[in-house]
Amino acid sequence: MSSQDRPTSTFKSKIKSRLPCTLVVSIIGFIAFLIRIRPSNSVFLSNGFVRFGGNDPWYHMRTLNFLLENYPSRVFYNPMTNYPYGSYIHFGPLFDQMMAITSLLLGMGSPDQNLITTVGAYFPAVLGALTVIPVYYIGKYLGGHKTGILAAILIAFAPGQFLHRSVIGFTDHHVSETLFSTFFMMFFMLALISAKEKGLRFEHVITKNLDALKEPLIYSIMAGVMYSAYQLSWPGASLFLLITLVYAVIQYVLDNFRGESSDYLGIVGTVTFLVSSILILPFVHPEMGFSMYYYSWFHVVTALGALGIFEVLSFIEREFKKRNLKAYYLPLVIFGAFIFGLIAAKITVPSLYSLIINAPHSIFGIQTGGPSTIREVTSIFYPEGGFSFSRVYEYFTAPAFFASIAGMILLTANIVRKPRPEELLALVWGFLIFMAIYGQNRFAYYYSVNVAVMGAYLAGRFLELVKWGRLEESFGTNVKSLKDFPGFFKSVKIEQVFAVLVIFVVLVFPEYSSSMAQTTGTGGPNGPWIETCLWLQSNTPDPGMDYNAIYEAPEDGETFDYPETAYGVMSWWDYGHWIETIGHRMPNANPFQAGIGGRRGSIEDENQPGASTFFTAQSEEEATEVLEAVDPDPDKSGARYVISDIEMAALYDGKFLAMATWTLDSEGYYAQYQIEGNSQILPTMRYYNSMESRLHFLDGNGLKQYRLVHESWAGQSNEVAYKKIYNLFYGGNVSEEDSGYVKIFEYVKGANITGTAAPNETVKINTTILTNQGRTFEYSQSTTSDSEGRYKFTVPYSSEGPTSGETRFDTAPTGPYVVSYGNTTKEVRVNEEAVLNGEEVKV
């Protein structure tokens, strides 16, 4: 064989040796994809509706359609939500751009809506399956091919948050966060391994030694690209910057104690964050100042700051060696430099200093007050105010979770014995994400990667006990074709087969079983909510906004200039994106936690107007004051429609207490009572007096300016139980039946019915309301005439039906109002104009 043939032969042998692992990883990735598209029937409904999961996926589809409608311009400010202020969009641009480009390519430049929704639905499943690739390589470089394959299997089958956020229809950026952050760690790890093996020094940069620089620089550049991709998927990517810097400080100290150069680390870190700072710069919005929530100077400055930290640490480390200083002084010097940097930031850029100081608590701290009601930001170990492993078992399975802890302990022992940069990086990464899930369970979709890697690392070490390495060598040496397999199987030992079975039974099967149980559906708006939002779109007045137009943000300190026809829809923030995206109407509150109102500091603070203050208001007058105060224009109210559902109304197993918690005043809505010798917790009158209860359970009976205009069909709930308690303990007379799961009310001026009776006479007015579901209830009011016999009722229902251009309500009185006093009864008809304009109707 000639010398010219050897490189080709070597290349072919490398390709051939990689084919089995490539094939296995590809199969694992395909299985991961199949798992994630199992519940496709719950996304693509039989009636043609595509139901995306959760809340934010709907908004990503909204921003995707924005983008395709105005390509390549992307929306940054959206006045169609958080009415009357609008919301700046903090979502990263990359996730939407990837879907948009895919749609444009598949649609040959003109994708239709069916193609766009199909791409959007399948996209998270594709990204979730691709995560198998970096997980495999991380596992491989920690413990060989066996560890990589096991890690790939564990992440493919991983249940819980990672599966939930990568399943078909959950079109949210969280899966791209996981994919790109894992790719970042993979390339950063490869850069460290390569730079360490080549003994990379700063002198190699000066002398342009490409042999030493080429491979580490390529990996470092790719790490920077992936960090940028991660950052452009989620503005909070500084979490992994923190992980990298914590690792770097520990690595510098260890290298110094061992008398080794850390130049390799300084070069890798410098290149990585130089690349990332350059790539993120075009997406910065300078008007946001220093904000972690939006793309701002904070993201460029922190990347450049990380670059500077690597440079400073490298300089300090080299000075230590040059001056032959004691190694144990280095941690003190680094700590001093850190304090100096904080002081400098506080003096020069106080807002940046505040962000840096508060960032650890926002990530690792347990939330209180209103934010504690947001499920994804509560602690994984304290889900309902007490310690529990329930979410741990749900998100990871118990064997996988505890295997990851054991794997980290084993890795720590290995580092103490013989430290390697990639192992220390993996350990710091795993530990800090573990701390993050202590603060917020949402980071469980990150920790699923750590569980897979650390569980595989533990299992890989277990396989080493049964001489698995010899089996791999035998396979590589003796298996050249399919006919060699029988001979290879003869060399397999019984203890090796047993070890594999143990790993699959203990680690893999529980994950597989759990993931199968968790992919029976995808969540998202249920039938009543879909029907309600579609009704809202078709039967309420056009607010006068171009739905897919890109609007300029208002000048600083000013509010958006809405047309006179614009109005808001008041509901709890959970439903804001559904109202906007399905209903094409403007919610007051949304899942960006905008428009909630209430208090943030203490009960002494002013209760700001918003959804929480409206629905917990103790009278119609108080609720109306809130609604009017939402809009800064004194001539306009904050909302024209109010939407309630049974979950908002439910006290024990619903969202009512969450609304109250945002006001920091959640006491007194329930109390303990002794009933027939048994202690029971029951709702109090404070609960039944709330605007939410008045609307949903009492159908707005007796309210002057709120009328039920549409209800969905009834759903499974405890509504009857709440009504029975109201009737039994508080003298109510409500029909004990289930009503609409979702209800739409309209806020109107109300017609003023006036008349005369005897002085100080009790006067009543009532009518029977027939809903679109065929249900009837009584609407009534009572008042006392004044000393001259005059009385007045303000009523919200029209007995004459809707008018053109206004609400096409399908819930209305079955006949005229009946006014009664003494032995007198009179019928009164009220037209829609009187109700909308507050006109007088004389009896």
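That was protein one. Protein two is written in the same sequence-then-structure order:
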Amino acid sequence: MSSSTAALSRTLKNITLTKIRELEKQRKTYAQSKNAVLEAAKEVDDDPRAKIAILLEGVEQLSPSSSSAVDLVNIRPWLEQSHFDSTIPDSMLEQYETQLRSQLHVQTRRLDLGALYSRLLTEWLNPTETGDEQVSFEDPEALDGSFEVVEKDRLKQLKDKFSAVVFTPLETDEVEISVHLEELFCEDVGAKALERLRRDVGNIGKYISVNKTPFDDRTIRWCLKGLLRNDLLRDDKKAILQDFLRDEVARTEICDVLNMKMADIKHWKWDAGEEGLPVEPRQQLNGKYRIMMDEDILDAIFIHYIGMTWNVGMKTILSDVARYTGIWKHKINVPEDVSDRRRYFLGEHRTRFETNTGVEKARLDMFRDEFFLSLLPSKVWQGAGGYDDDEEVDPENDANGVKSVKEVKQQLLRLLATEVQLQKTLHGKVAVVQSDFQWFCTGLSHSTLFAILRFCGVDEYWIKFFKKFLEAPLNMGPVSDGEPDSDRVQIRKRGVPMSHALEKFFGELVLYFMDLAVNQEAGMLLYRFHDDLYLVGEPEKCATAWQSMERYSALIGLEFNKSKTGSVILTGDEFTYEDSEIAAKMPTGVVSIGFLNLDADSGEWIINQKDVFRHVKQLSKQLAAAPSILSWVHTWNSCIGRFFSHTFGVPANCFGQAHVDAILETYKHMQDFLFPGSNVCAYLKGLIEVRFNVSDIPDAFIFLPESLGGLGVRNPFIDPFLVRDNVCTSPAARMQKFLKEEDEEYNDAKTEFEELSEQDKKRRRRAIYTDAYGESSISPTLEKELETFITKDEFIAYRESTSSKLASLYNELMDVPRKKRIVTTGRVMQTMKRLEKVQPELATNDMKAEMEWLLQLYEKELLERCGGMSIVEKNLLPLGILTILRKKKVAWQMVL
């Protein structure tokens, strides 16, 4: 049986089969009854009124819900009227007959489509032996040999590389690391900040170690839920965790065992036995493989609790150090003398709220709230998920306002695009730098970790525990036949076990000090999501920041991933950095996020068509390998709805309407490639006809959601059209509009000042330049300067800290446009209310507009061919099994 159905309970499968049998029974019964009605009507073919009466009675008996429609209910009195009233013409009687026959056939069509759905489900539940295999290629056109051989060879290479890294220690200079970190906490402000950091970090360790019985029902529940949300454990062990969540007695027993472990934590070690912890390459949703340990469930729960407690405590401490201790540089506040001059020339009404509403304040707030230490959770129940693009939205986190990985990365992309538009327009130049580390967590030096932990004030008691956690006994698998398991076990000497809460703790702690170094040395923000690194700003500052990052990475023993490192410098006509000293300091390579590349000439984010179609070719092969039509639909929806939709970049004002049009054009080219001369709807109809000999299928059957009896195929063109008319037409033009408004604002302020009376000017000077003792602080030089209104250059010098209009524009460019709500009928609105109950994910803010568009588009066809807004009655649909199908994740079968 397919792995997709292996975990289905026998009860759920039996319920599904019962519904399928009941549907088929109704279909046959209805067909017999309908044929009897039609035969009876045929016998009175020469009496139109008698024939209509028979057909009407048949509709009322066989389709009682349909016969309650107004036009059908009224046929009987009108028919009776026609016996006496000759104004009811024969043509009207013929219309009644056609209407009633159509209604009888509508129910047949609904039941036939329901039967088709049953056959599709049966096909999915019972795939062929070979159909459930998925093919994987790096370059599908270049591979001639057996895939199995290629796959095994690559996995072996991956494991060999992993072994070469993790079993060879990388010794870094702990003293040098400590000295470098000390330099970030210089002078009295830094010394106090460091003292506070070490005190608070020490308190976290004491809090955990003093509490010898932390595990109770509440604690074990959030630990179990957290482990279910990440990819640490295999599916079979996650099934056991699900059982624990349902079994109170089991949870009580587990708490007792874990509390015993905690009471004796100083003697904790991996529950591995002589054979060590098995290691396996495990495929992620993005198609890549990671080397994962197969560890004991109790160890996983125990370490998750410890890791999450350290994570939450450390996030609070590091955030507070950066926010409140004065060691973090920012440009929100304007120098006092400049502020006084602005107040004098521009008036209090213009300057009162300047520093609280500027772009600099918006930047810093967004950085702190969304990107700074973003992998560390703020609450223990948030779990410790991964950081891949393909991570699904966690409903519990989403309900509590916690952004998913996708949402954070989309926000980062919008931020980079907005900064490029703003800084190129305002300053004539901007640079963007991108990088990440090669084998970051896998290759992290243990000596680096211990040096940073000690620097932060972590007690040796916890250093010893972390050392045992890091030095896991790994079994890499058989080396030769007959070799004892114990001879295959090696102690890990480098890197951090993947997907643990402690992985996030160690990774964020190490890179926190790179964040701080970049801020102090370059006066800018390092936008970072785990080890995905981005700089955007003045080219000179970006070059300084990059050099700081290079020094820090060399110090801690890490290398940048050259394939994901690059920079772009964009300038106006009056600037050039080609072959300049600044450009030479920057890394070479392209800047890209997902399928978007930052064009070095135009500054626009361009869809990388070559990379897109490499994936489209793979999608074509994965679709062709789908063992059933429902699995084909699931693969299509997962790749089109989940993968491509966000790797193209979510449409936003900072990209403009051209970006939306590029997405639509790309989808068109994809469709032309996948379905030459056709489309997904026609292709699936043809596939169904070939496999099941069923034709004349309504388009709505393909696109309607499962709860309404359709296949739920996602149409990628709808979502871009929902925002196309609401997105900013041209962000560059919008920036030019701001410059024009700024000129007008300057001229208005100048005119207003020059029209002030001398008395008003003296009153302003007294209010601004009088000290606490009533003495004027105006020097003769300043007195002279105050006679002439500030220049335009002085007016705009601090606009990123002072201009509320610029801040408003910044937020506008960052915005994702609202989706257009199509005009809908009352029938569509009622159907949406039904969806809220049976398939609520389709009635969310994100999906509601798309569903309304879809239902309104196919309303006429549904009414004519199915007699309503659904294809099959909900009670006959096996929605439980369909829900399981929707939740199954599809992995890209791409490169390792």
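The chain has a mean pLDDT of 86. Keep this in mind for the problem set.
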